[in-house]
Amino acid sequence: MRMNFWPVQIAFAYLQQAWDRGDLAELRGLCSDKVFSELQDQIKARAAKAVLTAEGGGGIAGCRDTGAERNVAVMFDVLFTRKSGLAPSNVRKSGILSAQRPATSPTWFLDGIQQVGGLNRF
Questions:
Q1: Which of 3, 18, 112, 114 is deepest in the core (most CB within 10 A)?
Q2: What is the C-alpha R_g of the chain?
Q3: Single pTM value for the model
Q4: CA distances from 5 to 13, 23, 50, 74 (A)
Q5: Which long-range contacts does 26-35 make (Cβ < 8 Å, 24+ apart)?
Q6: Side-chain half-sphere of 17: how many Cα atoms within 13 Å?
Q7: What percent of the chain is helix, strand and coil (3-state, nearest 5)?
Q8: CATH of the domain at 62
């Protein structure tokens, strides 16, 4: 079965932009409750510490259907920039986006995220 992953890529781009801006209202509509709670805490804590921004690389790592839900794994690279002026570092992240299926225009939610390489997690 051939799948069109552009909606997932668009959802992920919105997530990354909302994260970069620290836009809690936008993130609320894009994440599951457990992920939003964690991201909300991290945005509050990061204000004085560092900024993570998207750095080009990334893509779909896999897809799995479980019952009425479709889960898509994404891998992406971010640039971790410390506000203290130290040199930036690259960080590799993995995320899970999920949507109900079947749906002609599914709404994708971030349902998990973890660091798989580099420095500190979000």
A1: 18
A2: 15
A3: 0.59
A4: 13, 25, 31, 11
A5: 30/108, 30/109, 30/110, 31/109, 31/110, 31/111, 32/98, 32/109, 32/110, 32/111, 34/111, 35/109, 35/110, 35/111, 35/112, 35/113
A6: 7
A7: 30, 45, 30
A8: 3.10.450.50
Tokens matching residue 40? 């909300």
Domain assignment of residue 1, yes or no: no
Residue in this structure with the two tokens 């971010």, named with its chain if needed: 78
Distance of CA 88 to the CA centre of its chain: 20
Q: What's the domain count of the chain?
A: 1
Q: Which two tokens stand for residue 14?
A: 């919105």
pLDDT tens digits, 14-71 = 888 888 888 999 999 888 888 899 888 888 877 655 555 555 567 788 888 888 988 8
* CB-CB contact of 99 with 59 (8 Å): no
